Amino acid sequence: MAKPDVVLLTSMAAFIINTRQTTVGEIADVFDLSLTNTVDALKTLMLTEVESRPGFYFIEIAVDTEDDDDDSDLVFARDNWVTYTPTKYDDPLVYLTLGEAAVSIGMIDQVLKLLHPGSDAAESLRTVREKIRSATGGTVGAEPPVPDSSQDVLDCTWQALRESRRLTFDYHGPGGLTEKVTTRTVIPCAVLSETDGYLAALQDKTELRWFRLDRMSNASVGEAVSSTEANRARRTLKKNSDPKPIDGFAVTFTVKTGAAWFAESTPGAHVTSHGDRLDITVRAVSTTWVRESALKIGTDLLDINPPEVRQAVAEQARAMLEVQ
Predict the structure, then answer these.
(1) What's the pLDDT at 318?
(2) Mind listing the domains of the chain with CATH numbers?
């Protein structure tokens, strides 16, 4: 590591403390690092002491390495155990201002956007985040970021990336009066951010496309990708790393509970239950799409928000009635 990466070191320390015992290889896999960079980070952590706060503390990390031939250095291997040893400074009181707590949570949230939500690293970060939030009395950092796509789509996407396999999914885009649904089979390259919403993938072997996660549904993992295709995908992504901006706008349908099917059939829908009614929030591509969705829901529809979208839909409907 050329210089310490504070976010990486904080995440790695949280992972080691929560697992209590892991290996150099597991840390490298979780944080997608080479063995050399993992060892450099571990050495930095093992030598780190914090004296600038009233609660002076250090993290006691032990690695079962062996000395080299002249006893001048340590020899690390992937299967070396890394053990966190609690001391009298365990779980120290770290004095943060509200501003420092907000910045810390903001940094953690940025890392969480790029991690698989079910990973050990994400779970460790959420634990640290909650401790900081609780210490402020809940005044900072209400909730961690929520992915803008269904969990099954994200699970399939991450599996395809991990195993170098093709990914097939239905893609919902604007088309005519409603939406156009097409089936795509791609070579996934990277998830830009689960919460900000893009998958970079190769379509037709050479064309790099950006797909919005909240427009993907019915995802499935396909056949393995050859090493030649995988290398081509990485090179293409490196040359074209800028995604398209997210378009559309958020709209909330308030419906009776019988319209839960609408959320289940709409990619990226977020549902809030209020007992006898549901708030279904989606990202709409046009007022026309909102109107057509309202017609699909039918008499189970109770309200549409924001008010300006409701008004635009009503004006469209009145115009159509006048033509009739």
Answers:
(1) 80
(2) 6-135 (no CATH), 151-239 (2.30.30), 249-323 (3.30.70)
